[in-house]
Amino acid sequence: MHEYTSTARVWGLTCPGFPEEVSRARRWTRDILRGSPLAEDAELIVSELSANAILHTASGRDSGSFHLALAVSAQVIALSVTDGGGAGTAPTAEHQDQNAEHGRGLGMVSAIAHRVVVHKSDGGHTVTAELFTGTHAGGHPC
To answer: Which residues form the Histidine kinase/HSP90-like ATPase domain (predicted)?
Structure first.
């Protein structure tokens, strides 16, 4: 392969900030990653990040929206959700007590993903979760 040739594939989807769009985001992710051993983990991550965007940012208010990006290469699946801003603080993984009803989602994403990165921009935040392929015993690339 030529050194400047990329074999990564990238998809994007913008969704209105309605709760029912979380199932659309899951289905979209599942369809793209069909056959990948990491598809279920990716679907769970996208579901959580999409729900967080709708519940905690301007994405879920008025005419808000959120954007998903999915990049797949032989080494990594990168899932990004960009929200509409309006939250006073950046998304963080919190440690809740066992009786808490909320606040565990990003911690769960951090436990599933190999790496989670939060980027702040003028318009909101982008949370990217990376699943490395073939990093565990018996792992298979996508």
So the answer is: 19-129
